[in-house]
Amino acid sequence: MKLQGRVAIVTGAAQGIGRAIADKLHAEGAQVAVADLNGDGAAAVAARLEGLGIQADVSSEQDADRIVQETLGRYGRVDVLVNAAAIVPFIAWDEVDFAYWRRLLSVNLDGAYLVSRAVERPMRDAGYGRIVHIASNAFYAGTPNMGPYLAAKGGVIGLVRALATELGRYGITANAVAPGITRTEGCLATPHRDSFDFVQALQAIPRHGLPEDIAPSVAFLASEESGWVTGQVLVADAGHIRD
Question: Which is the catalytic residue, given 128, 140, 149, 170?
Fold first, then answer.
């Protein structure tokens, strides 16, 4: 098992891709702290994995710090951070007001910064760490009705590159996984649900993407095996984007 003896935090893990990642890391041997704004959902996933459930908003500096502190209090270490917490919008550009823009960026980009900052010190002290952010292939595709989301995910990719440069000397890697459209509860609750067949026609692998298709890429980047990989974006979208 790739993560035997490791401790991982997964944000946004009460549902969707985050939950599939938490399941996969647990299956690979990790003890998992499940953090989500949906506290009941986080508790349910954590109970199933015999892990730690934490109700938290990653856009809050205090909550981001508390996620790490509660994990350290329970397990005494943090080896892996996977940040999957996100808001996925469907809104035309000319309908985006500044309040909506700020809310999207506060979770999707500020949250990535805050949890990365919170986890850096214990990883640096240990001389080891794996930081993995969930980006999106929509950044490369310029998907319509997702303006603030694309801006935030572009920022996440920039953050990953900066973290790789800044933290590599301490044994910490930083990477991102960029999924394509994936059959999650959040996606199916928006008009994005009508895009699956169109996107499938553009993929090399002709089927709909599932959360379980994304988790193995994250598990690799969260493991010791990826120690020579940092500052990278692994696009996991069945060959939709082929740059």
Answer: 149
